[in-house]
Amino acid sequence: MNILITGGAGYIGSHVAKQLLETSKHNITILDNLSTGSAKTLDTLKSIRAFKFVQIDLNAFDTVCEVLKENNIDTIIHFAASIVVPESVENPLKYYMNNTVNTTNLIRCAVANDVKRFIFSSTAAVYGEPVNLSETGIDESYETSPINPYGMSKLMSERVIQDTALAYKDFKYVIFRYFNVAGADINYIDGKLTPRIGQSFPNATHLIKIASECAVGKREKMAIFGDDFNTPDGTGVRDYLHVDDLADAHIKAIDYLVEDDSDIFNAGYGKGYSVKEVIETMKNVTCKEFQVDMAPRRAGDPATLISDNCKIKSKMNWTPKYEDLALICESAYAWEESV
Ligand code: UDP
């Protein structure tokens, strides 16, 4: 196959590219504007095997079409997007342009060039603030009701993809709704966990990234945003998923779409951990102490977000390998230490 990965220099896209380069013979083209993606990551990927890289923005409709045509692309895995929730509230138009409009443009190019398979990174943020849920997971039929422009920009993109597939029978899709993605490349050298790629995104806001920066000493302290939620210890509960397991789901989706029908899948482990549990785990696996303050709730944070992952496991035969919070924290820390 001839596969295009948009956002392949970014966090999740680079882990998918790594697995494809290591385990398949597919021709890979990476498209990235390098606004947040890392050129160093691309160099690391090049050391695995050759691929084509094109540095352009997805809004360059004609050039994107040329790339699809020249490389005879039959499969697109689309990651390129803006992903910071608070920023989406301050600058919604950036999110509707970079996410919804650019995805629509990419699909226009895809249809014009007979692309057969489209794999899309969506988010659990499309579920908004689930109510009446405690420890039970959300399945894909749960009502979508995003509470910020980021979630809405992804939900609108989902709709564009679904409507396109209804109109063009040769165009099939898999949409993944990611829960909390964390960790870094599981790679051992002489028995030591040595990630080659990881999360390089500047000014990260995600819990495990921040806790790993504290453990390494890049940050002096961190805060827990709220301890008065209706959860066992009062702090927010999330479903943390290792990035290499998520990448594997994308690889499975490529083959899935050859035979099977378009569908939406949650990607998560179906198990929740509280903010306090995550911070304790990071301290334990790294043997590092750091200061943790209490702070008020962050706007728009739901108490609990856990996936029901029955569908992805049964329909796509997805078997996660790194379902272990300690390993997620350890790999995030090892990556943070190396950069
Ligand atoms: N969180 C926290 N301190 C931080 C970052 C995050 O307490 O410095 C909490 C956040 O309020 C939520 C959980 O950790 O309950 C996961 O947040 P993250 O930003 O990683 O992902 P989200 O679930 O918001 O997509």
Task: Write up what this structure looks like.
The protein is 40% helix and 18% strand. The strands form 5 sheets. It has a 7-stranded parallel beta sheet, with helices on both faces. The protein has a 3-stranded mixed beta sheet with strand order 14-11-16. β1 (2-6), α1 (11-23) and β2 (27-31) form a beta-alpha-beta unit. With 339 residues, the protein is α/β, with parallel strands linked by helices. The chain has a domain at 2-181 and 241-267: Rossmann fold. α1 packs across α8 and α5 runs parallel beside α6 (149-167). The structure holds uridine-5'-diphosphate (UDP).
Describe what is shown at a glance.
This protein is an alpha/beta fold and 339 residues long.
Keywords for this entry:
339 residues, alpha/beta, Rossmann fold, seven-stranded parallel beta sheet, three-stranded mixed beta sheet, 11 helices, globular, binds uridine-5'-diphosphate
Strand content: 15-25%
Number of helices: 11
User: What order do the strands of the largest sheet run in, or round the barrel if closed?
Assistant: 3-2-1-4-5-6-13
Name of the CATH homologous superfamily of the domain at 2-181 and 241-267? NAD(P)-binding Rossmann-like Domain
Main sheet specs:
7 strands, parallel
Topology:
Blueprint: E1 2-6, H1 11-23, E2 27-31, H2 39-46, E3 52-54, H3 61-70, E4 75-78, H4 85-90, H5 92-112, E5 117-123, H6 149-167, E6 172-178, E7 180-182, E8 188-189, E9 192-193, H7 207-216, E10 221-225, E11 237-238, E12 240-242, H8 243-259, E13 263-267, E14 273-274, H9 275-286, E15 291-295, E16 304-305, H10 310-316, H11 325-338
Parallel strand pairs: 1-2, 1-4, 2-3, 4-5, 5-6, 6-13, 7-12, 10-15, 11-16
Antiparallel strand pairs: 8-9, 11-14
Helix pairs in contact: 1-8, 3-5, 5-6, 7-9, 7-11, 9-11
Bound molecules: uridine-5'-diphosphate (UDP).
